[in-house]
Amino acid sequence: MTYSAIKVRATPGVPGSGRAGTVAVVAGLAVAGWISFGRYLFGIGGDLTITYTVTLGLTYGVLLSLAGLAMRRTALRGFPTRAMTHAQLIASGVCAFLLGLTIPDSTLGGLQTIISGPTEPALGIAIGIANPLGVVGIVTAIIALVLATTDSRGRVTLVESWGDEEEEPATSVDAV
């Protein structure tokens, strides 16, 4: 009996429209705008807006847009996008939305967030939540980009098979 394993590239199916990828690009840019400028909608935009735009907004915008473009390319090539890719994109978007609510900005009244305003202890709690949300959001965006890029190339799967070949008889060495 023999065992063999070979890698097989997925065969493309019917090309799709790529709408999910387009939605991911638009949502990624919207989330980047929310993180960068969302505080202005509530009248608490301040001095840190430029910093957030250049760092967090740009990072989220690029990562989520590239992931969306890879999802679009996946659909146009006829490959399926795995559910984990969608889950990572959604998780990143949710973290980014919550980050936009909890990220502080420096105003004339001091540090403020959308959900807490300038009041303590809510301000301290919101700031404490913002950092992990940003880290988790960027990590999940990177994972989504890697998964989407892998999906766009057609996943390689491992095919295993057992052969029922006759075993060779064991040889014995005669001792003299």
Largest sheet: 2 strands, antiparallel
Number of strands: 4
Q: What is the total domain count? A: 1
Q: Using only CA atoms, what is the Rg? A: 25 Å
SS strand fraction: 5-15%
Q: Topology as H/E string?
A: EHHHEEHE
Shape: elongated
Structural class: alpha+beta
- The N- and C-terminal alpha carbons lie at a distance of 33 Å
Name the average pLDDT: 84
Q: Regions with pLDDT < 50 over 5+ consecutive residues?
A: none
Helix content: 55-70%
In order across it, which strands form the biggest sheet? 1-4
Distinct helical segment count:
4
Transmembrane segments: 21-42, 48-71, 83-103, 123-148
Keywords: Membrane, Transmembrane, Transmembrane helix
Note down, in words, how this protein is organized.
The chain crosses the membrane at residues 21-42, 48-71, 83-103, 123-148. The chain is α+β, with helices and mostly antiparallel strands and 176 residues long. The protein has one domain. 56% of the residues lie in helices and 12% in strands. It has helices spanning 19-37, 49-77, 83-102, 122-152; strands at residues 2-9, 105-107, 110-112, 156-163. Helix 3 runs antiparallel to helix 4 (122-152). The longest helix has 31 residues, at 122-152. The two termini are 33 Å apart. 31% of the residues are buried.
